[in-house]
TrEMBL record:
<keyword id="KW-0067">ATP-binding</keyword>
<dbReference type="Pfam" id="PF02955">
    <property type="entry name" value="GSH-S_ATP"/>
</dbReference>
<dbReference type="InterPro" id="IPR016185">
    <property type="entry name" value="PreATP-grasp_dom_sf"/>
</dbReference>
<dbReference type="InterPro" id="IPR006284">
    <property type="entry name" value="Glut_synth_pro"/>
</dbReference>
<keyword id="KW-0460">Magnesium</keyword>
<comment type="similarity">
    <text>Belongs to the prokaryotic GSH synthase family.</text>
</comment>
<dbReference type="InterPro" id="IPR004215">
    <property type="entry name" value="GSHS_N"/>
</dbReference>
<dbReference type="InterPro" id="IPR004218">
    <property type="entry name" value="GSHS_ATP-bd"/>
</dbReference>
<keyword id="KW-0436">Ligase</keyword>
<dbReference type="InterPro" id="IPR011761">
    <property type="entry name" value="ATP-grasp"/>
</dbReference>
<keyword id="KW-0547">Nucleotide-binding</keyword>
<keyword id="KW-0479">Metal-binding</keyword>
<dbReference type="InterPro" id="IPR013815">
    <property type="entry name" value="ATP_grasp_subdomain_1"/>
</dbReference>
<feature type="domain" description="ATP-grasp">
    <location>
        <begin position="136"/>
        <end position="327"/>
    </location>
</feature>
<comment type="pathway">
    <text>Sulfur metabolism; glutathione biosynthesis; glutathione from L-cysteine and L-glutamate: step 2/2.</text>
</comment>
<keyword id="KW-0317">Glutathione biosynthesis</keyword>
<dbReference type="Pfam" id="PF02951">
    <property type="entry name" value="GSH-S_N"/>
</dbReference>
Length: 348
């Protein structure tokens, strides 16, 4: 099996990224891998679709640092291949990272992923589903019971009124974005710096204001779902609690958050089960839920991360289970000779 990992850029990859763990797991299971970036697709005059992939030597790496060094070094080769020779195209780019400097690149994965799927390659997450999730507005399509109360607007007056009706405060962030960038907690509509925050964040487009959840002081839970269900291996769920640093609103690991082990309760499983139907309908193979209390703050469908931390905490390689699931999808595709749509295969 050949798996192509689509990322924003080669130089932007790190040894701690979940994509690194997935690629290493694929190599460990005897598969070929390559990395693809937004400028690597070629749609030819005969309607064939090719891709220039950065191919690593077919060896197993014991350490993520060694793998990353090889990816960034001279041992790789650039190989042009027809997408029909790629079994799985795994879309792992973050569109928000390209939105400002390379807007043309932000949604290339979904665009060409759709063409690759039409030519027989399994594409995950499903590109049509990802096209629906280009910003946080996608989250509003899930049941109200699992969402914080939310306002989406570019009006400072609307936002002030919303803040005034939520005495415990409001979290404000851009509609388009990820990784905890420009996330602020506003305690009152009279806060002196509200105008400055509004001007800074609204420059990126629409704003989201959500009622602040006091349980957020304990951090959030990142829970992986695969094929619409919580990812579990050896009796343990692929989940961590991300605890924010002192004085910090965000619990993201790169924002100085700390990852600790967590036990998944029946209540959390019930939350996951409530969002499962839409995730399955949209062909979302691998997603990360960010849960606080009985609410989901975000659903990351593009680049959910944290598998490396889970490997360290639990000594369980969840990436291996993900690659095994892809093997099964390839077998199902071949058995049905293209009769099953990519969106269905993505979550079987």
């Amino acid at each position: 099996m050949r798996i192509a990992f689509f990322v924003n850029s080669i130089e932007g990859e790190t040894s701690t990224y979940t994509t690194t763990g997935l690629a290493m797991a694929a190599l460990g299971r005897g598969h070929e891998i390559c990395y693809v970036t937004p400028g690597d697709f070629v749609l030819r005059a005969d309607d064939s679709l090719s891709v220039r992939g950065r191919v690593l030597p077919g060896k197993r790496y014991k350490k993520a640092e060694s793998f990353h060094a090889a990816l960034q070094g001279d041992d790789t080769a650039i190989e042009t291949m027809d997408t029909s020779d790629v079994d799985v195209l795994f879309l792992r780019n973050d569109p928000s990272l390209d939105a400002d400097d390379r807007p043309w690149a932000a949604h290339v994965g979904a665009m060409f992923g759709r063409l690759a799927a039409a030519r027989g390659t399994i594409v995950v997450n499903d590109p049509d589903g990802l096209s629906l999730a280009q910003n946080k507005l996608y989250f509003q399509g899930f049941p109200r019971a699992v969402r914080p109360e939310t306002l989406i607007s570019k009006s400072i007056d609307e936002i002030r009124t919303f803040i005034d009706t939520h005495k415990e405060g409001v979290i404000m962030k851009p509609l388009q974005g990820s990784g905890g960038k420009n996330v602020f907690k506003i305690g009152s509509p009279d806060e002196a710096n509200l105008n400055q925050i509004f001007e800074a964040v609204s420059g990126e487009g629409y704003l989201i204001a959500q009622n602040y959840l006091p349980a957020a002081t304990e951090g959030d839970i990142r829970l992986f779902l695969m094929n619409g269900r919580p990812l579990e291996r050896d009796g343990k769920y692929a989940a961590i609690r991300r605890v924010p640093a002192k004085g910090e609103v965000r619990s993201n690991i790169h924002a100085a958050g700390t990852a600790v082990s967590v036990e998944i309760t029946p209540e959390i499983l019930a939350i996951a089960d409530m969002v499962r139907p839409k995730l399955v309908e949209d062909g979302m193979f691998l997603v990360g839920l960010d849960i606080v209390g009985d609410k989901i703050l975000e659903i990351n469908v593009f680049t959910p991360g944290g598998l490396n931390v889970m490997l360290d905490l639990y000594d369980i390689d969840f990436a291996d289970s993900i690659i095994a699931a892809l093997e099964q999808k390839v077998a199902q595709r071949d058995a049905y000779a293209g009769a099953i749509t990519n969106r269905t295969l993505a979550t079987l």
